[in-house]
Design a protein that fits this description.
Elements lengths: L1 E10 L5 E4 L1 H11 L4 E7 L4 E6 L3 H14 L17 H10 L2 E7 L2 E2 L6 E6 L5 E10 L1
Antiparallel strand pairs: 1-8, 2-7, 3-5, 3-8, 4-7, 5-6
Amino acid sequence: MKSHRKELWFQTRERREFINITPQVEQVLQESGIQEGLLLCNAMHITASVFINDDEAGLHHDLEVWLEKLAPEKPHAQYRHNGYEDNADAHLKRSVMGREVVVAVTGGRLDFGRWEQIFYGEFDGKRGKRVLVKIIGE
C-alpha cells in the first residue's frame, strides 16, 4: 500500500469565503499515482472547514446566510471566547460545517456523485491557512 501527503495553502481576501478546491485535490491525486484507495482532505485550522457540496452560487449564499443566523459574528461581546479574539463565531461555524471529507478513489479519480465538489470554507480569514490531503491505496 502507498501513501501520499501534501498541504495546500490558501489566503482568503474576505473573513468568510467558500473556495472550490476540487481541481487542486485532483492534482494531488494525480501526483500520487494511486489508482484505488481513499483520500482524506481536512482543514488544519480550527476556524476553517472542508466539505462536499454543489458548486452553485445561490447555494453558497444560502449557506452563508444560514451560518450567520446560527452563529452571528457580531456583537462580539455575545461570546465568552472573544475576550482575546473576535472569532468565536468562526469556531461555531466550523463545528457545523465539519473538519474533513473522505472520498473513494476509483480508477485514479475521485469517486463523486454527479454534482459533488470539495470546498474549503474559511470563517476567520485574511491570512494563510492549510488544508491537508492524505491519500492511501494502491
